[in-house]
């Protein structure tokens, strides 16, 4: 665990000057991974919550929170129960806080500039079984992550003046009309109106969206959709 924390160049992760403190991220994660009681876990949590990955007093989240998310989940799974509770609280805070202007996104391996909240939600969804097994406190995290949905376009067909987009939905797209960001090859296009045409059946992630007043040629296979409101989040 400590080796994984030290393998990250925390100083190279961008963050708002005078707010993000890389040393706090390293020290806080180290201390939380080694915590064996409430006092130690609380001290580590305070370090992370005051410049390490978030700034709790101002309700701001930093890009470092995305890198820290899988590490916090590891600590929750492998660490002391008090460390687990602190890690879950930090994850909840990171998901709900807003980022500073200029530091609202992280670049994924495929070049996609993902909103911080959506990137954290992706890590939480990957541990859904573990989190749900923790009871009410754990279940709330994947439930909250669900609102930061992601849709990968696999196929499109024209439907009147609209397009039916078939693909894979992660998270939960609620009913009604929504705006979305479409990411492809590093470019972002805003889709002003789409609805969930067919939700996934139980045990599947396949879904169909209706993208209003768009031609199939405008919705390439492999494009990723994220909630536009997530991209607009700024502290």
Shape annotation: elongated
* Chain oligomer state: single chain
Number of helices: 9
Any idea how many domains? 2
What portion of the residues fall into strands of 2 or more residues? 25-35%
Write the element-wise H/E pattern from the N-terminal end onward: HHHEEHHEEEHHHEEEEEEH
Q: Looking across the biggest beta sheet, what order are the strands in? A: 6-7-10-9-8-11
The first-to-last residue Cα distance is 32 Å
Task: Indicate the percent of residues in helices.
Answer: 25-40%
Largest sheet: 6 strands, antiparallel, barrel
Could you report the average pLDDT, rounded to the nearest whole number? Answer: 94
Q: Would you identify the regions where 5 or more consecutive residues have pLDDT less than 50?
A: none
* Rounded Rg: 19 Å
What is the tally of beta strands? 11
| Structural class by helix and strand composition | alpha+beta
Explained architecture:
- The protein is of the alpha+beta class.
- The chain folds into 2 domains: 2-145; 150-231.
- The chain has 9 helices and 11 strands.
- Strand 1 (54-55) and strand 2 (60-61) form a beta hairpin.
- Helix 4 runs parallel beside helix 6.
- The mean pLDDT is 94.
């Amino acid at each position: 665990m400590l080796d994984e924390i030290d393998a990250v160049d925390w100083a190279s992760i961008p963050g708002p000057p005078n707010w993000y403190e890389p040393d706090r991220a390293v020290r806080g994660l180290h201390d939380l991974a080694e915590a064996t009681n409430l006092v130690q876990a609380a001290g580590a949590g305070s370090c992370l919550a005051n410049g390490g990955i978030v700034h709790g007093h101002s309700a701001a989240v930093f890009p470092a929170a995305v890198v820290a998310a899988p590490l916090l989940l590891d600590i929750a799974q492998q660490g002391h129960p008090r460390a687990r509770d602190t890690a879950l609280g930090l994850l909840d805070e990171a998901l709900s806080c807003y980022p500073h202007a200029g530091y609202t996104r992280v670049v994924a391996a495929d070049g996609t500039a993902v909103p911080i909240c959506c990137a954290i939600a992706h890590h939480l969804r990957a541990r859904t079984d573990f989190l749900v097994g923790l009871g009410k406190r754990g279940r709330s995290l994947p439930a909250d992550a669900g609102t930061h949905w992601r849709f990968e376009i696999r196929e499109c067909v024209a439907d009147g003046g609209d397009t039916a987009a078939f693909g894979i939905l992660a998270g939960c797209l609620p009913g009604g009309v929504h705006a979305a960001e479409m990411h492809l090859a590093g470019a972002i296009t805003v889709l002003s109106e789409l609805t969930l045409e067919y939700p996934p059946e139980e045990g599947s992630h396949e879904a169909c969206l209706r993208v209003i007043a768009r031609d199939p040629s405008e919705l390439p296979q492999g494009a990723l959709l994220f909630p536009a409101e997530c991209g607009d989040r700024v502290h």
